[in-house]
Each structure stands twice: as structure tokens, then as C-alpha cells.
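Input sequence (140 aa), recorded before submission:
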Amino acid sequence: MAPTPAAVGKPQTEMLQSHLTAIAPDLECRTVTAMVTLEKTARGLMPCDVVFGCTDDNAGGLVLSRFSTFMATPVIDCGVLLGGDGALASINGRVTTLTPGGACLVCRDRIDLARGQTELRTPEERIRLENEGYAPSWEA
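Predicted structure, C-alpha cell format:
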């Protein structure tokens, strides 16, 4: 299924489920639209045979990398980068397959470890550490 204007604004999880079930109608595909950095969300992925990740932050990528290794579960991490100053100038996509025993997203330079660690902190901790010079500046 090719993207259409009707897809604009819909959750990535909904669109991916639509694509996958069009390819394999008998597929059991459960979507989770939640932050994978929350323990409840990550634990909910444990029974899955494969996980597609569409996280928008470095911290989510860290969790998915660890999940693939520790749970011996393949993870297909999808990312999109919209470029431009004020106007859309480019759209770039990437798909990274994580397999148990393979290189993680940090090893492949797909995520920034320091930024991911900062994103896992509370807003108050982030501000305090940024002001003290111990964490990279991060905009919400």
C-alpha cells in the first residue's frame, strides 16, 4: 500500500498495521501507541514474536535495542526525519533491523546515548543537569 493523503495525521502504528495486514491477512498484529520507555509498555511487548518500533526519541531507541538483546526478539526500528527551516525541504527514512547478537542502535550510530539518557530523566532533572553542564541541552 502506498501512502496517500488520507494517511496524514494517522498514528504510525495504525498505518503499519494496515500495511502488514494487507500483505498477510491472517496476521495477528497488535498495535501499541504508547511510550516504550514506560515499563508497562515495554513489558507488554514481551509475548511478541517481532516488534516494529516507531519511536521519536533516542530513549525509545535505547529501550528497543535492549529489548531485542535481552528478550531475543527481532526489532524493526523505523525512523523518519523531516528537514528544513520553517518549510519542509526533505523527508528521509531509515529502517534498522535489530536481531539478538547483532549490533544495537548505539553501535550503529543511529541514536545518541547521552541524549537518550537525558530524555529518560524527568523535566526537572533535565533542566538541573543542563544548567550544571552535565547533560546536553534538550528542547521539548
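Checked by second reader. The chain has a mean pLDDT of 85.
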